[in-house]
Sequence to fold (319 residues):
Amino acid sequence: MVKPLRLRQLLRLVWFRDYLLGVSEILDVEHTPGGAVLMDGNRLRDALVAELNGRITELGNPAVCLATVLVGDDKPSQIYVRNKRRKAEEAGMQSRHVELPGDVSQQELEAAVLGLASDPTVHGILVQLPLPDGLDAERVLDLLPPEKDVDGLTERSMGRLVRGRDGHVPCTPLGVMRLLERYQIATAGRSAVVIGRSTLVGLPQVLLLGRKGCDATPTLAHSRTADLAAVCREADIIVAAAGIAGLVTADFVKPGAAVLDVGISRTADGIQGDVDFDSVQAVAGAITPMPGGTGPMTIACLLENTFHAARMQGVFSVA
Fold:
């Protein structure tokens, strides 16, 4: 027996019908218990990795190489790097790994990165952060040529993004954009609020949402924004990247809005996102889970950037 929809649910679904472009073309869309579209980052990551594999195969399997640099024995970092290398191989890419002890000197670390930067067979370089205490990450990142900065972390990559030049976009904000695109969330003329002003997520996210082709009207908010909930309630799209567990509740979200959770906090109850998923999924039109939402997309976009890095370095050309 089909359970009748409450008026609030019906209004949200009618509003979201118009909010999604061509929702019928999205295959196997899952919904939360409250009726929101679940933007599944794991599923989309795997689809994008398979697409990259197909593109590389069509190009005749050119050697596309991602190099990873890991310093120390931090367990989460080891897991992150291992997952990135595994997905690179699934995409049909080569993976080169440099692992250094936690007591490595700044000079030794820089020499290792410079060796990769000058190697023409290496197309993308990822230095896993954070580095152990005593090492200057900025000095290391400054050694990366913009063409090989597939994490999009350097000031030259940010400058290219601002100027609209060919370069690499930070992976997490790019992952948010891919989720919006693949789940066909309308952005043109829509209001977007980005909570968080970091150079890794918040600032590039605002640039991506506002640039030509996306055409959203973004607002940059943060933990000190006056009446943050009221600001968010005006938004069609909310990207939560403040790093404050459970910050965004149902009170922040207007019916039908798309909510993407980027924030990660380690609490006594484990890893939590910025969004109170249980309450928000009953109001939102679309929502990412945590985990399994924006996190997997970061890996997918790292590989997308690596593919384009090889193109930028003349390994192949794409029409």
